[in-house]
Amino acid sequence: FRLALIQLHVSAVKSDNLQRACGLVREASAKGAKVVALPECFNSPYGTQYFKEYAEKIPGESTQKLSEVAKECSIYLVGGRSIPEEDGGKLYNTCTVFGPDGAMLAKHRKVHLFDINIPGKIQFKESETLSPGNSFSMFDTPYCKVGLGICYDIRFAEMAQIYGQKGCQLLIYPGAFNLTTGPAHWELLQRGRAVDNQVYVATVSPARDEKASYVAWGHSTVVNPWGEVIAKAGAEETVIYTDIDLKKLAEVRQQIPILSQKRCDLYGREMKK
Fold it and tell me: What sequence ranges are listed for the domain CN hydrolase (predicted)?
């Protein structure tokens, strides 16, 4: 099946972001994409100072648009960090998924908050405004089961391992790595998660905006279960496509059967919630 990643240029005007995102979703569908993903924070600038201003409840304006365009195009739509979600007085970094009938199939709240301090380069603390999610998020398609993470979640191998154990064959991480962590770790982490779990890994970033207060790395990418990069964007707004070949996945697992060779008598991972 064909997967499309929309590397959107995000402005400060929510209505413009929503309109352009829906237009690119329609374009991807017209080119045969069955699963389409939007980047982290696609409807607002990324930054702790913006989260409260742009926050919505779910369902709300942004998720309604996503539901409508998913139904119109009869696709599975992964809505990036569609919005900062407001719920019960708390804010969450939330990714929603809609099916071909427009129904919401999953709602993933970012589990690991991005609190880092790299001296002389970047300091950022999502926990100043956001609360963490407390659950794993998966959804079924006629093609395969898909697991969801958001950006910083990709650094935590245990999460991807559990998704693999639960039968996911594709992991999608909307993300917005920056100009420090992007060149160092963006592709490395994707290839690591793909090889460790023998799954496809897709990451979808906002396009790079050098004038933004937080400059995203871009380079949305798809990696196959052998660890090969099979599709990759540059820094500008674009849509990239790749065909997810589940026969390739089965071949890799047959050739190197790590899933059946794990020493579960010595170690293991479990989902507690």
Answer: 1-246
CB 92, CB 131: distance < 8 Å: yes
Q: 110, 126, 187, 237: which one is catalytic?
A: 110
DSSP character for 186? I
Residues in Cβ contact with 15 at an 8 Å cutoff, skipping those fewer than 6 apart: none
Q: In 3-state terms, what secondary structure has residue 269?
A: coil
Residues 124-131: contacts with CB within 8 Å, 24+ apart?
A: 124/48, 124/178, 124/214, 125/48, 126/48, 126/93, 128/48, 129/48, 129/51, 129/52, 129/91, 130/48, 130/51, 130/84, 130/91, 130/92, 130/93, 131/90, 131/91, 131/92
Q: Are 272 and 162 contacting, i.e. CB atoms less than 8 angstroms apart?
A: no
pTM: 0.96
Dist CA 44 CA 25 (whole Å): 17
Catalytic residue among 40, 56, 86, 126: 40
- Looking at residue 158, what DSSP letter applies? H
- Mean per-residue pLDDT of the chain: 95
Residue 40 appears among annotated catalytic residues: yes
- Confidence class for position 58, pLDDT limits 50, 70, 90: very high
Say how far apart CA 163 and CA 223 lie, in whole Å. Answer: 16
From 126, 151, 187, 237, active-site residue: 151
Residue of higher predicted confidence among 122 and 39: 39
Q: Is 125 a catalytic residue?
A: no
